Amino acid sequence: MKTINLPFIIGKHYENWEFDLEVLDIERIKGYDSYLYLKKIILFGGIADYVELIFLFDILEIVFIKFSFESLEKLLEFKAKLTSKSYTIIIQEQGLNLKLLYGNLDEKAHF
Fold this sequence. Notes:
Elements: E1 21-23, E2 33-37, E3 42-43, E4 46-56, E5 59-68, H1 72-80, E6 88-94, E7 97-103
Antiparallel strand pairs: 1-2, 2-4, 3-4, 4-5, 5-7, 6-7
């Protein structure tokens, strides 16, 4: 699979990031493992406030990233740059905050 403009490649193994992850005590999806990504992520000038990687059997399935913006204009500019030919992308806006989810998504994930 190929990503366009996205920081993590779905389908990669846990070992690619194992030293940059911290186990989360939440289970968003039954049987899946959630980890907090500890390194800084900058995407189109936006700095992520929160990055969660969700794995099934050590394979990355879903990425959940939260961003906060200084203005609506910055948020809209950022949103316009998000594209993928390989993954489903869900974008949720709340004021000047944006939640970005992508990967092998279906109705079982709760964010």
